[in-house]
Amino acid sequence: MSFVVYPALDIRDGQVVRLLQGDYAQQTTYGDDPLPRAQAFAAAGARWMHLVDLDAARAGGYTLAPLLAQIAASTSLKVQTGGGVRGRDDVARLLDAGASRVVIGSLAVRDPGRVLAWLQEFGPDRLTIALDARQGEDGVWRLPVHGWTETADATLDELALRYAQAGMEHLLCTDIARDGMLSGPNLDLYAHLSRRLPGVAVQASGGVRDVADVAAARAAGCAGAVLGKALLEGRLRLEEALAC
Questions:
Q1: Contact at 8 Å (CB) between 228 and 180?
Q2: pLDDT score at 174
Q3: Which residues, 6+ apart, have CB-to-CB distance to 233 below 8 Å?
Q4: Residues near 146 by Cβ (< 8 Å), separated by ≥ 6?
Q5: Which pLDDT score, from 0 to 100, does residue 146 have?
């Protein structure tokens, strides 16, 4: 299983932004140039990118189809994208718009029955299941939903295993406590998931600061790492990350 680096762009109101631990009130804006940034990813040698529609994640209704089409027309990048997926037609629409893989987050936690059916319909290589997790004082990883304000009944271990047994191939897992914090990825979490879910390509998300973190995620068993804030702030060069 080859390791994939996913340079990431989060888009809100047409702007490239980052939220601190998913909080819309704690936003840093990096510019209104998502297409040139995606083209720069491709020029640096990236094969994939991760694209998030934050407006849709909050209100539903994916808004980045025109940008997705521009990226597809002007680069060879494969795009993993999500935000606001509420139903089957949303998945089909994103794939038709040029997405190589659709990311399904909160719905994968709230209504796994529906999402499990989509794995069969669209194929497990076309979907990335995104489970954002927070570790409790008891050590159990739980799955906050609704803007991370409520907690689902199933734990991360339980739901991830259920998806894996149904054929899931791609799992994007974010440690909420590290999201946007530049504090390093949670290597214990990713090593645990990689052991528990053999054959599933686990993507590390949250906390990556530098090339050493990318290499450490790979060593922990991850099949990929999502690079956001560190890239946007110039702490990490994409070429260096791709080289490792």
A1: yes
A2: 94
A3: none
A4: 106
A5: 61
Q: Give pLDDT, residue 59.
A: 85
Compute the CA torsion angle 14, 90, 86, 56 (nearest 10 deg): 0
Kindly report the pTM of this predicted structure: 0.95
Name every residue whose Cβ is closer than 8 Å to that of residue 173 and which is 6 or more positions away in sequence.
130, 131, 132, 133, 156, 160, 189, 190, 193, 202, 203, 204, 205
Reported as type and span, the H/E element at residue 171 is: strand 170-175
Token pair, residue 214, equals 């990318």
- The whole-angstrom separation of Cα 109 and Cα 61 is 19
Q: Report CA-CA distances (Å) from 141 to 1, 81, 131, 189, 233.
A: 26, 25, 10, 9, 30
For 197, the token pair is 């879910």
Q: Model confidence at 189, in pLDDT bands (50, 70, 90)?
A: very high
Q: What residues are paired with 149 via a beta bridge?
A: none
Average pLDDT value over all residues in the chain: 94
Q: Would you name the residues annotated as active-site residues? A: 10, 132
The pLDDT tens digits for 138-161 are 999 999 876 555 566 799 999 999
Is the distance from CB of 152 to CB of 110 less than 8 angstroms?
Answer: yes
Structure tokens at 122: 């669209």
